[in-house]
Design goal:
Elements (H helix, E strand, L loop, with lengths): L5 H22 L6 H8 L3 H7 L3 H25 L4 H17 L1 H12 L4 H22 L2 H4 L8 H21 L6 H16 L4
Helix pairs in contact: 1-2, 1-6, 4-5, 4-6, 4-7, 5-6, 5-10, 6-9, 7-9, 9-10
Amino acid sequence: MARKTKAEAEATREAILDAAECVFMDKGVAKTSLEEIARKAGVTRGAVYWHFRNKADILDAMLERVRAPLGEMMDETAEADQGLASLKNLCVVALRKLAQDTRYFRVYMILFHRNESDQAIAKHRELAREATEFVTEILGRPENRIKLHPELTPAQAAYLLHTQMLGLFFDWLADPEQWPLADVAPTFVEAYFRGLLAER
């Protein structure tokens, strides 16, 4: 059999991830087998194992695929002069992506509501650590720290912002019809930040 080109291998990998999203959404991660993912993708189970070690590896790749664009925005925010304005915008963009980007919606639905394993807890902790470290660094800048509520440290403010965003992600995904999230995102985010900032 001829060796696959790099482009063909990448296409197979993407097909496996697409198939996994569909099957995980339908059955949940714990009840899905690699054989089912392979069938849905139209490939052999060996092809799945060529690209991924297990279901946890697949879920990690699915998350990385949707988080890459936001990762670029996080880098830009970390380097931006305006700090808090960029951080607010990043929060709004994340909420609007959840409401408007089908792939982003599906992957986070799988992580929060279709994953009945210890891996989900570990992944939540990993994402929480990354998010709070990133926000703590932004809020810890002198020009931003002076704007915080005087009784909040940057780490505490970052934790509060993270848990508010996390709670909204989790709860809205359970009932997406309850709010037009893309429309109300700026209002929600502004309210979050008002709670973190000193009164002026």
